[in-house]
Inverse folding.
C-alpha cells in the first residue's frame, strides 16, 4: 500500500466507531474542491510504510474499533484487498471511503468491508465536469447499485454549492438516489462555496430530508 497519511483517531469518519484513518495515495480525478491535493499524485513518495501502519494498529487492538481506508481513492491500489484482510485479521472492522470510480474492484472488497461512504459527486450529466475526468457516471452508478445490492452498511454523500451545479439538479439527484433505494444521504456544503439565503435553505433542506429515511446536512 502507498500511504499518504495516517490519522490515529477519529470518531466521525466511521459511524458509531472509534477508528484510525489510512489516507491512500493517488486519485485519477481532479475535483476542483479536493481537500487532499497532496494525495492525488499516485507516484508520490509514501509518507508512512504500510508495515508501520500495521505496527501502529497492533498497538491499538482493543482501543480502536475500526480502520477507514480513505484517500485519494483507495480502490486505485490493487494491494487494497490484502491490506483490508490484514486489518481484519487484527480484529478491526473496515470502513471504506470511495468515489465509486472502480465498480469491479469495489465488488471485490465488499465482503471485506463493514461500512462504505460512497461519494456521488454530481448528477450523472455533471459528473465529468465536477471531477475533471471522463466516463465516470456509468461507473459510479454501477458502484452504487453494487453497494445497494450488497446489504453492506453505507452512506451516500454529495458535496454541493450552487457554483458546482444548480439547485434544481441537486433535487433531481436526490430524487433519483431515493428512487434507487438510497436511505441515508449526507449533503455536504462545499468549502468556499455559497448557499441560498438561510430561510430558503431551511425549506430546501426540509424537502431533501423528506425524501430519505436518514438525511444529514454538513455545513462547511
Ligand atoms: S475524487 Fe476525492 S480525492 Fe479524488 S480529486 Fe475528487 S475529492 Fe480529491
Amino acid at each position: 500500500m502507498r500511504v499518504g497519511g495516517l490519522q490515529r483517531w477519529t470518531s466521525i469518519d466511521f459511524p458509531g466507531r472509534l477508528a484510525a484513518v489510512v489516507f491512500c495515495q493517488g486519485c485519477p480525478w481532479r475535483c476542483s474542491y479536493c481537500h487532499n491535493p497532496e494525495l492525488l499524485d499516485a507516484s508520490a513518495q509514501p509518507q508512512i510504510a504500510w508495515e508501520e501502519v500495521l505496527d501502529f494498529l497492533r498497538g491499538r487492538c482493543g482501543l480502536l474499533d475500526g480502520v477507514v481506508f480513505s484517500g485519494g481513492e483507495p480502490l486505485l491500489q490493487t494491494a487494497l484487498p490484502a491490506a483490508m484482510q490484514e486489518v481484519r485479521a487484527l480484529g478491526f472492522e473496515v470502513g471504506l471511503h470511495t468515489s465509486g470510480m472502480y465498480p469491479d474492484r469495489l465488488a471485490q472488497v465488499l465482503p471485506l468491508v463493514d461500512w462504505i461512504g460512497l461519494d456521488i459527486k454530481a448528477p450523472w450529466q455533471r459528473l465529468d465536469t465536477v471531477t475533471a475526468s471522463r466516463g465516470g457516471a456509468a461507473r459510479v452508478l454501477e458502484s452504487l447499485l453494487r453497494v445497494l445490492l450488497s446489504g453492506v452498511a453505507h452512506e451516500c454523500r454529495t458535496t454541493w454549492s450552487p457554483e458546482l451545479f444548480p439547485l434544481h439538479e441537486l433535487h433531481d439527484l436526490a430524487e433519483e438516489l431515493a428512487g434507487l433505494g438510497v436511505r441515508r444521504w449526507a449533503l455536504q456544503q462545499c468549502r468556499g462555496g455559497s448557499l441560498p439565503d438561510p430561510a430558503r435553505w431551511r425549506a430546501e433542506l426540509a424537502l431533501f430530508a423528506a425524501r430519505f429515511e436518514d438525511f444529514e446536512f454538513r455545513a462547511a
Q: What stands out?
A: The chain is about 35% helix and 20% strand.
